[in-house]
TrEMBL record:
One of its GO terms (molecular function) is alpha,alpha-trehalose-phosphate synthase (UDP-forming) activity. Homotetramer. The lineage of its organism: Bacteria, Pseudomonadati, Pseudomonadota, Gammaproteobacteria, Pseudomonadales. The keyword Iron does not apply. The gene is otsA. CDD domains: GT20_TPS. It catalyses: D-glucose 6-phosphate + UDP-alpha-D-glucose = alpha,alpha-trehalose 6-phosphate + UDP + H(+). This is Trehalose-6-phosphate synthase. Its EC number is 2.4.1.15.
């Protein structure tokens, strides 16, 4: 079997024999272990030293390099996270465009392809991850790298009307066509991409299902990312910390509502806090009987929009607790720090409701992790935004619109009252979907398709 080379913005090496927390790192390691290979990307450091550091563990080599300050500002903080991230999450209002940042983005992609080239063997399969690296394949072709190259987009793909807000959208999308296979989380994303290719640039869908655009022939497919349900259940069962129902100084038994996210405006946190407050106002019989735990460690805290969302949330949380708390009851626990995976899965298992309401999300693994953590004999209820990719598969969740505050409040009330038989039915239905499209299936099917699809011989990119 040919070697696998994974390229992603960040690399998560095995530390002290352990794979970094989070399903994705585990899935990538398993793929690399099966065929041996390289995981290449940014080390996370900002430094003027451009040398690659290599570390080999078993049959996997981690090859990482630092970015200098200008590259970090333009490629990472700028075009990736202040232009692409908001626009791909349908947030034109939060996006900015700066031509120098775009040029920096292109420059870093070209530099990374050049650094990778000497590490490659001719039959390596190359798998590129996410929006930071859209032009990577074109840069490889320019360097006469002829290996098979696949791309997976972890975030949504927006409709053409939104995408075209990015001034160089044409050039950006042209670079995508140099991949052999492009994978999306849902059919909505794939169709938006196909729409752009056929309507904006008059690409053609061939009889064999492939696409031809900008003189390139390639494939686009849907590969919903999943979790490892057995691993999650084991973690959840082995958690020994705080449990539901919990007792405080009183005899009151309280149910938990739980949410876990990176602190990001796409996750709908402010709307969620407002909905929880509306729930306590409209259904006062639940007061003192529920506690909402929101875990949200900061991310990208040097990007302005992320500072704003943090301030908004702090003020909203203070407002709710100030108005409704009692000496023996705090309605909202807002924890601004990260937790280990066992604790998270344990908290999921003992929470009566998983409250997962992003305004837009590629997939949202937390929704799947919440369900997979449940006790099959007494499962909790998932309240899920229709705008998470996961809603396409987890159709037995209570599906809500995160822009509908009262609708979300009503869903919380319904979830907390739901009879055991209905909870079990919904849980079993969701577990079937989670098992059918788990993390192994995502990785294996994508790589099988990348290895086997035959695309036409491609001309080298222009120098
Ligand atoms: P993210 O936006 O990071 O990922 P998500 O899929 O929900 O979103 O989470 C990724 C992982 O991080 C999960 O395993 C989760 O448990 C963990 N995590 C989240 N918050 C945490 C916290 N507070 N503490 C500790 N761990 C936490 C992007 C896309 C998603 C897509 C994934 C994978 O935005 O839509 O599902 O990639 O493709």
């Amino acid at each position: 079997m040919s070697r696998l080379v994974v390229v992603s913005n960040r690399v998560a090496p095995i530390k002290a024999g352990k794979v970094a927390a989070g399903g994705l790192a585990v899935g990538i390691h398993d793929a690399l272990r099966q065929s041996g290979g390289i995981w290449f990307g940014w080390s996370g450091e900002v430094s003027a030293n451009p040398d690659i550091g290599c570390e080999t563990v078993g049959n996997i080599t981690y090859a990482t390099l630092a970015l200098n300050k200008r590259d970090y500002d333009q490629y990472y903080r700028g075009f990736s996270n202040a232009t692409l991230w908001p626009i791909f999450h349908y947030r034109i209002d939060l996006a900015r465009y700066n031509r120098e940042e775009y040029e920096g983005y292109r420059r870093v992609n070209a530099m990374l392809a050049e650094k990778l080239k000497p590490l490659l063997k001719p039959d390596d399969i190359i798998w590129i991850h996410d929006y930071h690296l859209i032009p990577f394949a074109e840069e490889c072709r320019r360097l006469s790298i002829r290996n098979r190259i696949g791309f997976f987009l972890h975030i949504p793909f927006p409709p053409p009307e939104i995408l075209t807000v990015i001034p160089p959208h044409n050039e950006l999308l042209r670079t995508l066509c140099y991949y052999d296979l492009i994978g999306f989380q849902t059919d909505t994303d794939r169709l938006a991409f196909q729409d752009y290719m056929t309507r904006e640039v008059r690409g053609v869908i061939e009889a064999d299902g492939s696409l031809t655009a900008y003189g390139q022939n390639f494939r686009a497919g849907v590969y919903p990312i999943g979790v490892v349900p057995e691993e999650i259940r084991e973690l959840a069962e082995s958690y020994k910390g705080r449990r539901r129902p919990m007792r405080r100084n009183t005899d009151v038994l309280r149910k938990n509502i739980i949410s876990v996210d990176r602190l990001d405006y796409s996750k709908g946190l402010v709307e969620r806090f407002k909905a929880y407050e509306a729930f306590l106002d409209r259904f006062p019989e639940h007061r003192r009987l529920v506690e909402f735990i929101q875990i949200a460690p900061t991310s990208r805290s040097d990007v302005k929009t992320y500072q704003t969302i943090r301030q908004q949330l702090e003020s909203e949380a203070g407002h709710i607790n100030g108005r409704l708390s009692d000496l023996d009851w705090t309605p909202l626990h807002y924890l601004n720090k990260s937790h280990d995976r066992r604790t998270l899965m344990g908290l999921f298992r003992y929470a009566a409701v998983g409250f997962v309401t992003p305004l837009r999300d590629g997939m949202n693994l937390v929704a799947k992790e919440y369900v997979a953590s449940q006790n099959p004999e007494d499962p909790g209820v998932l309240v899920l935004s229709r705008f998470a990719g996961a809603a396409k598969e987890l159709t037995s969740a209570l599906i809500v619109n995160p822009y509908d505050c009262i609708g979300m409040a009503e869903a919380l009330d319904r979830a907390l009252r739901m009879p055991l038989a209905e909870r079990k039915d919904r849980y079993e239905h969701m577990m079937r979907a989670i098992r059918a499209a788990d993390l192994d299936a995502w990785r294996d099917i994508f790589l099988r398709d990348l290895r086997t699809f035959s695309s036409r011989p491609r001309p080298a990119a222009k120098k």
